[in-house]
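Long-time lurker, first post.

We've been arguing in lab meeting about whether zinc ion would sit comfortably in this protein at all. Half the group thinks yes, half thinks no, and nobody has a model to point at. So I'm putting the question to the forum: if I give you the sequence and the SMILES, can you give me back a predicted structure of the complex? Inputs are below. Any interpretation is welcome too.
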Amino acid sequence: MSSDSESSDVLSWRRYLHQNPELSFKEIETSRFIESTLQGFGVRTWRLAPTGVIAEIGTGGPIIALRADIDALPVDEATGTPYASANFGVMHACGHDAHAAMLLAAAKSLSVRPPATGRVRLVFQAAEELPPGGAQQLVEAGLLEDVSMVFGIHVQSGLPVGMAAVGPGPVTANSDRFEILLHGSAGHAALPHQARDAIVMAGHLILALQTIVSRSVDPMSPAAVSIGQVEAGRAPNIIADRARLAGTVRSLQAPTQAIVEQRIRDLAQTTATAFGGSAEVRYMRGYPGVENALLPSGLFAQAARDVLGEDSVQGALTQLAGEDFGHYTRRVPGAFLYLGSGSEGRDFPHHHPRFDLDERALDYGVQVWLRLVDLALDRLAAPGPT
Ligand SMILES: [Zn+2]
Ligand SMILES: [Zn+2]
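Top reply:
Settle the argument with this. Predicted structure of the protein with zinc ion, as tokens:
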């Protein structure tokens, strides 16, 4: 169980990071702090990207990777806590300060008692919040090439402190974006027959796009198609020759993702053509969905039950949110666990200016990490299929 010094370390590190947040890809002081803290207890560190830190503890054997993201968000903090952001307009409003602090505290314990049967690679990853994200860069740099399993913890204000959620299957969605440019031809508002109205095309297309989820996607496969931006027109008496729509697509399964993309392309072209215009579609695939594998999620659930109690761990909490941990689970078997951090007054949604966490979650997170390391490395050292 945790010692008092472990508890005070994780708390003070979390508050220090909370007070000094940095935006995605700009985690310069954060990375230095993590690096010097790790080096302070004799852990070897290196970098695979300009910001973010990799470290390793143990020798030989199989390797498991534990990931914490470290970036903050462009949010004006309104918590009023003594450790509120000192960097105006930037806030740790997703709890990545907690992730970094919990992994640092786990590293400190592991540095005193290194694993006997393998290695733990600690991944302090930059830029989860800003596509293309920091994970892809690390994967391309070879982070996971010799790794057997990868694990991530995310605090969750919607789940009470003392609870956790993990299970096999999809956890987050494939998160894509699209942009459609509709081209018509301009004209006088009183002479519509001489023009090709891009706004009318846009109106029909917006409604047509609503049928993708309701008519083209298998109802057993979740998906969302939302238009978030519409731009067109310059004056009330001019028919617009151009309209721009931009939106978001979320899906859990690859076939659904492909169907949605194809339907957006088809509907844009055919709708524009039907009204005498043309369409250009840009579809940008974003973070792949996080998919928990059977064995790693079983080990994570066991670790959480051992720390939090039998009844405190529920199955996977699937959300259509995006999370670049999906780049890791696409590459090697892995699992992502939601750690409850909510309590009364500390249950504002993530990314909210008043987001905060019940700091009891920090100790739980550290203990779950340490228990997981034992269970996973034991399992990997045991003979038989993994
Ligand atoms: Zn977030
Ligand atoms: Zn987050």
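For your lab meeting: The chain has two domains: 4-172+288-381, 174-284. The chain is about 35% helix and 25% strand. Whichever side wins, do check it experimentally.
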